[in-house]
């Protein structure tokens, strides 16, 4: 059918209903794309140190966190007499408290006011903490 012979409200091939057509002056994506939040350096470092890697040690394949491997290497170097490694290890220990308080995706920190909890709730929380912790020999 030729354009000039079509009725005014024609709906068909490449002619959607008037209410469904793109409106003038209106963007197809009014919200725009979502922006990611800028990450703090401490968060990036904490997430990277919590990542696990596989390492060959004494002929066995072990799974360990990068933080554990970093500490292990630094201690080994310090034992061999590397004073600089000992200094780095002591600095890491000083800054460890700040990194432990940094929330990450794996370990989001939720603050609870312990003074507002009842005795039963505190006991339940302690049982959950003890159930979720590993013995020291497994680290």
UniProtKB/TrEMBL annotation:
<feature type="domain" description="DUF5681">
    <location>
        <begin position="19"/>
        <end position="95"/>
    </location>
</feature>
<feature type="region of interest" description="Disordered">
    <location>
        <begin position="1"/>
        <end position="36"/>
    </location>
</feature>
<dbReference type="Pfam" id="PF18932">
    <property type="entry name" value="DUF5681"/>
</dbReference>
<dbReference type="InterPro" id="IPR043736">
    <property type="entry name" value="DUF5681"/>
</dbReference>
<protein>
    <recommendedName>
        <fullName>DUF5681 domain-containing protein</fullName>
    </recommendedName>
</protein>
